[in-house]
Specification:
391 residues; mainly alpha; 18 helices; 4 strands
Length: 391
């Protein structure tokens, strides 16, 4: 499609190398001699910002605009209200969107290969953590239904000793027969302290009377517990292995020292923040743009005399999760962050709202540090904030 909205060519592009080659040929045929000019720009709209196709398009020198699927859906409704949809119509719609509103779309960031690698391992690591939580909850629900004594015995169901003992004794009868030496050995392998006291407490809880299920039902539940503990053991092992990969990749990045100097950020959380923000120095025009991308800044809905300020609910889940966790740690270790949090609470903000404001301020501080290449300084970062009260 040219700048006037006229379709120049139409084709179905296959996947892989053949598809990229066909696209290059199609573009070259339309450009002709202009393809050799440095002033010629080919802009591509695509509903993703990652993957082999995006990398290949960037490597070919095209300007790639990543279109959010929600934005594409709203734009489709703007062109047709019938609800009709097809691949050809979507391709035409994306091309027309790039032609007419390309100045409002965000180009795919030119992140380094190292930043992309950090994103891959951090996302895989976080996904395993989420999976561990899901499987732990499934295990908890199963135990609550037929083996409540296990919930009283093990405070942390995904702890190594809990998984080992539940795999060995997944039902009330076999768990009650566990000896003190067996429990002590599991605690020692998990490197726990005060193993004798803990072993006695676990054994007493497992042998205490509780309501149960019929034998056949109990056997079925025991099989499911055995399977869940096996899955959790594997997930724990792989999460630990990926954590080491995250630390190794993040440690190689030149901005790692600046990121971990921020309050509340360590190697793992810092790697997540760096990966989701990217390391393209030109991606964010200013601190406000970075805050908007992070979704820590509020949005305003104004119509007539009505004006509402609300939190952004459309956001990068992985990034906002990391930033909110950072803020919760920062108000403990940073006096400036704590004073800023207390100020928001005094204004009537709830816990989450006040924490989001702290995260918003921290994103701005991080942007300044990355822009100037300087480490975090408590005095400079919170120069205009009230000093915390002393007892």
């Amino acid at each position: 499609m040219n700048e006037r909205g006229k379709r120049l060519a139409k084709a179905r592009i296959p996947e892989g190398v053949a598809g990229i080659a066909k696209l290059h040929k199609l573009v070259a045929e339309q450009l002709g001699e202009a393809a050799e000019s440095d002033d010629t720009e080919v802009v591509v709209g695509i509903e993703t910002d990652r993957g082999p196709w995006v990398m290949a398009l960037l490597a070919a020198g095209y300007t790639v605009l990543a279109v959010n699927p929600l934005v594409a859906a709203r734009y489709r409704e703007r062109l047709a209200v019938s609800g009709a949809k097809s691949d050809a119509a979507d391709a035409h719609m994306l091309a027309d969107m790039v032609r007419a509103d390309g100045h409002q779309l965000r180009p795919v960031a030119g992140d380094t290969d190292l930043a992309e690698a950090i994103k891959v391992v951090t996302r895989a690591h976080k996904t395993l953590i989420w999976e561990r939580t899901r499987h732990t909850q499934r295990l908890r629900h199963a135990l609550r239904d037929f083996f409540p004594a296990a919930l009283a015995a093990f405070e942390d169901l995904d702890a190594p000793e809990a998984l080992e003992l539940l795999a060995k004794a997944p039902d009330p009868a076999s768990a009650a027969r566990l000896s003190t030496s067996q429990i002590t050995a599991a605690l020692k392998r998990a490197r726990r302290r005060d193993v004798e006291t803990k072993a006695d407490r676990i054994q007493a809880a497992l042998r205490a009377p509780h309501l149960g299920q019929p034998p056949l039902t109990t056997a079925a539940y025991a099989a499911s517990v055995r399977a869940l503990t096996a899955v959790l053991a594997v997930v724990d092992t792989q999460a630990t292995a990926l954590q080491q990969e995250v630390e190794a990749h993040f440690g190689q990045h030149p901005a790692a020292r600046i990121v971990v100097s921020q309050p509340g950020l360590g190697p793992i959380l810092g790697a997540r923040v760096l990966a989701e923000f990217g390391d393209d120095p030109a991606r964010y025009a200013d601190a406000k743009a970075r805050r908007n991308y992070a979704a820590t800044s509020p949005i305003t809905r104004a119509s007539g005399k009505k004006r509402i300020v609300a939190a952004r609910y459309v956001h990068n889940d992985r990034l906002i999760d990391a930033l909110m966790f950072q803020a919760s740690k920062a108000i403990v270790c940073s006096p400036g962050a704590r004073a800023y949090y207390d100020k928001q609470r005094e204004r009537g903000a709830g816990y989450n709202a006040a924490l989001r404001q702290v995260a918003n301020r921290l994103v701005g501080i991080l942007h300044g540090c990355l822009k100037t290449g300087s480490l975090y300084d408590e005095t400079t970062a919170w120069a205009n904030q009230p000093k915390p009260a002393t007892a």
